[in-house]
Amino acid sequence: MTDVFEITNKDLLGRIGKLYTPHGVVETPTVMPVINPNLRLIEPKELKRYGAQMLITNSYIIYRSEKFRQDALKRGLHAMLDFNGPIMTDSGSFQLSVYGSVEVNNSEIISFERDIGTDIGVPLDIPTAPDVPYERAKEELEITLERLGEARQYSGNMMLAGPVQGSTYMDLREEAARRVYAMDFDIYPLGAVVPLMENYRYKDLVDVIVRCKTGLGSDAPVHLFGAGHPMMLALAVSLGCDLFDSAAYALYAKDGRYLTVDGTYHISQLQHLPCSCPVCMSHTAKDIASADEKTRTRLLAEHNLYVTFEEIRLIKQSILDGDLMELVERRCRSHPKMLSGLKRMMDHSAYIERFDPATKSTFFYLGPESAKRPEVIRHNRHLKNLTVNGKILISTRKDVSREGYDNFYMVKMPFGVFPEELKETYPIGQSETISELGPEERDSTLENILSFIRDHPDAEHTFAYDEVWESPRIKDIEKAAKVVHLG
Fold this sequence. Notes:
- The chain has 487 residues and is of the alpha/beta class.
- 43% of the residues lie in helices and 17% in strands.
- It has helices at residues 59-64, 66-75, 77-81, 93-99, 106-115, 134-155, 170-182, 194-198, 202-215, 230-238, 248-254, 278-282, 285-290, 293-321, 324-332, 336-347, 349-353, 374-383, 439-455, 473-478; strands spanning 5-11, 14-21, 24-28, 30-35, 55-58, 87-90, 120-121, 159-160, 188-190, 222-224, 243-246, 257-260, 263-266, 363-364, 391-395, 407-412, 416-419, 431-432, 460-465, 482-485.
- It holds the Pfam family TGT.
- Zn(2+) binds at residues 275, 277, 280.
């Protein structure tokens, strides 16, 4: 692995990092605004005032235009776009996915990216769409891998991205990630995920990201191609994505759409602007909606950029504070499909726990998904290491009599059992949970209690509980321990 990426802070799979490029150091996670050379809503040199550190443009569009091609070759890409920060160029793979063919081959486009001074170039990979037949996905993956293999012959000193393909076949995604990582690229884009996001298939998106991450090394900077809506950035960062590219700020603006972290509104439907960015503080919704098309589009694009980078800054602060999970849970409850993504993320908690910091800020219980958080998994895994023997009392109340027992364990939702010695330590001592037990909270906690009992069969366990813990799960505990109902 090259030494272009340095991780400085972590939470869940998310991290703050430094990406070293020929035109400066970029702090990740960040979004690269997409610049179409033909349609510049906002000039590249203006982007930094919104929070952009680097941008992405399409080398194929530049290559196909005689005017742009000659200008880029003569003056260089940075001078042509009037941007002095890092620039990444896509290779035409998007056009390939839309039109089925492009008027350039792999070696030509890589050589062109190199010659115009791109910081990070992308080979001409095949973006295999979701749900295609397995054999097609495998065949196209092999073509992509072959093209990636030849890329170094033409890249010179340019940094190279190695796209990870494989459609919606998780074995292919993981295999592709392992093979691409072994080729030692500088960043690793996850390709062909836009259709998943366009169709709100966040559950499938989570699976794709996690399986790709499984194949990549933990030091690999990951770019989620085509992801730029602020609503889903926290989820993607928490799964280990570092770079995003956003055409959404411009495309949505052209359609009169106003981005927020909770979803998208059409400007004509808004009476109040729920934002404090410079655009929203100096205009009313009516001002923007009634403006001429050019002005309206420009104002919406500016707002969309402001809200996108505001979310990136909040995500970074959440990583530093150790409460990224709380932000993810809040964001994912803004849409049912996002919530399905959160639920699927929790299915991968055992994997996430391997990388999640052992201590952080307060654990907030925000719903049933919190019962599967990495902290809960880690707590119960650590309990397996305890030596437990003799007569053990596990109680949902502190004031129960402990006479006749060798050891006493308390219960806390959603963790389950914990020794009194841990009551001030993280996460038990720093967790904020609801006082009213619902069925899901209660039963997930009882499952953890039962697991503790089964993990320590040499002890004689008694479980004492009060009426709020009544559940069919109690009968399962009765098979492994003595059960006492507290009056």
